[in-house]
Input
Amino acid sequence: MKKILIADDSSVYRMVLKRMMAIIFDFDYEVSEVQNGIEAFKKLHTSKFDLLMTDIHMPKMNGNELIDKIKDTETLKHLPIIVITSEMNKKKLNLWLNKGVLGFIRKPVTPEEFQKTFKEIGWL
Amino acid sequence: MKEKNNELMNICVEVLQTAAFLFADEWQEDAEQFSKVTNFVKIEFTGESSGYFLIGTTDNIRMIIAENMLGLDSDDPLIIQKKDDAFKEIANILCGHILSFLFGENCFFNILEPFQVSKKDIADIPKEAFYKFIVEDEPFVFYYNLTDDIG
Output
């Protein structure tokens, strides 16, 4: 059973991502949701996850700060991360990839792109 | 300028199509068309340039956006619950796409949380300054303002 944490302040987008998973995933999985980086960081300390899907623009602690904190934490630094954001920013993308982020999906997410990303990380 | 405006319109149309399966038609000017826009969401940003982005449409289109984005049945009560958030999320996505277009793919922005504004709050913006088109026979408009306008 794969355990996935979604961090996004938009309840609508969390629902969109879960809908994509229901359509595309052909394996057992369990999803937890949080609304910002602080909640995500706390959650990652209380349960073990196989993947974090995070938005970038979130209140309290944004996705960039969350990724930095994860990569600075010995027990979490190998956690696979996929970034979901509306901007297409090559500098940021390279920055994230250099930090060990596995993939990047641009909003609005399409089933095709979602599937492609999960194929690339070897989940499909 | 015309090319830039066309491209901005295309970006908006494509996002609405991909995110919410809404297809756009050209704006039909009539005296009442703009006044049918009842709901506006504003989103502020800082970074390479500061400013704000604004979208507006009818309540019915907001319901269709929620229905289509979430894949709900048209009578699902969640549509009413989620229409505000769905419209804000569309504003958020559009803002990201438009900033990437205006400033290129190497610029950093901090996009703040979207919030609803009333017609009164935006009364100073002339109607002509909005980008306008029709979806499902109803108006959809957007507008942006930059502190440091790049022209």
In short: The longest helix of chain B spans residues 78-103. Chain B has a mean pLDDT of 91.
